[in-house]
Design goal:
The complex is a heterodimer of chains A (94) and B (170).
Chain A lengths: L2 H20 L5 H16 L10 E4 L4 E5 L2 H12 L7 E4 L3
Antiparallel strand pairs in A: 1-2, 1-3
Helix pairs in contact in A: 1-3
Chain B lengths: L2 E16 L5 E14 L7 E5 L6 E3 L1 H4 L8 E4 L10 E3 L2 E3 L1 E6 L3 E4 L4 E4 L3 E5 L4 H6 L5 E3 L10 E6 L6 E6 L1
Classes of the chains: A alpha+beta (94), B mainly beta (170).
């Protein structure tokens, strides 16, 4: 990990803490509903094209596919006006 | 018998092979996972049920959020003990042992198996997939330490879909 990476990660972390303070904590039942939906999609093979990527889900829809989870949260949390941890995300791989 | 449904999560594209008869066969790549209710975390994390792992272990991205003295206590090695490295696919790690002071919940969103006093490994660092993507880290629920004792892991094939299914019964 380089110094640039560390700086970038620190900035991401700081911004995520700001976003977390802006919005109420996630409602677990809503989070679980999205996670169940994500599991169903995976079991049905609907996300097979995204192996090796991070997939983000909100309100039973895939709202992001990317290589860096923190970058996705920085975009999706303000976009949907929710706490960053409300976005359900999973790395599709081992 | 209380049961929680394990998720047979596809973690890669299926691997096609050919039988001697010439028939194509697609071999799935799945892990059995549950959700973990963990102290000081807002939302659950994934736990891989792995009876081939001697212990349960947590990557640093997860355990760094636990509070020493509140959520866990250290179990230092006896002086002179040379600790082996932990090993998982594609990653070797050093670790320390801890005992949780808060209950850990294994659940599927509706049923929950609550465990007190779990003894587990805290890995130094994170697996390569986390370092690459910063994705939510995954814990491993291993054989010894208080998570799986007294349970049955039931693995079957769904008659309709042909897919692997898993459940934890206690």
């Amino acid at each position: 990990m380089t110094a640039d990476t560390l700086t970038t990660d620190s900035l991401r972390d700081a911004r995520l803490r700001e976003l977390a303070a802006l919005y109420p904590p996630p409602v677990i039942a809503e989070w679980l509903a999205d996670r169940s939906w994500l599991n169903e999609q995976m079991n049905d093979g609907a996300l097979a094209a995204h192996y090796g990527k991070v997939v983000a889900v909100y309100n039973r829809a895939v709202v992001g596919v990317g290589d860096n989870y923190l970058d996705m949260l920085l975009e999706l949390s303000p976009k949907f006006g929710v706490h960053p941890e409300r976005i359900v995300a999973l790395y599709l791989g081992e | 018998m209380p049961t929680l449904r394990l998720t047979a999560l596809g973690v890669g594209a299926g691997l096609p092979v050919r039988e001697p008869s010439g028939t194509a066969l697609l071999l799935p790549r799945v892990q059995l996972r549950c959700l973990l209710r963990l102290p000081n975390l807002l939302v659950p994390r994934d736990g891989i049920i792995d009876t081939g792992s001697p212990f349960s272990w947590f990557p640093e991205a997860i355990w760094s959020q636990f509070r020493r003295g509140t959520d866990y206590e250290d179990l230092p090695f006896e002086p002179g003990t040379v600790a082996p490295n932990g090993r998982t696919a594609g990653w070797n790690f050093t670790f320390r042992f801890v005992r949780f002071l808060q209950p850990i919940g294994l659940h599927d969103g509706s049923s929950e198996l609550v465990r007190d006093g779990l003894i587990a490994q805290f890995a130094n660092g994170n697996p390569p997939s986390f370092a690459r993507t910063n994705a939510p880290a995954v814990a491993v629920i291993g054989l010894w330490g208080g998570a799986l004792e007294g349970t049955n892991v039931r693995i079957a094939t769904d008659a309709t879909t042909g897919r692997l299914t898993g459940a934890l019964e206690w």
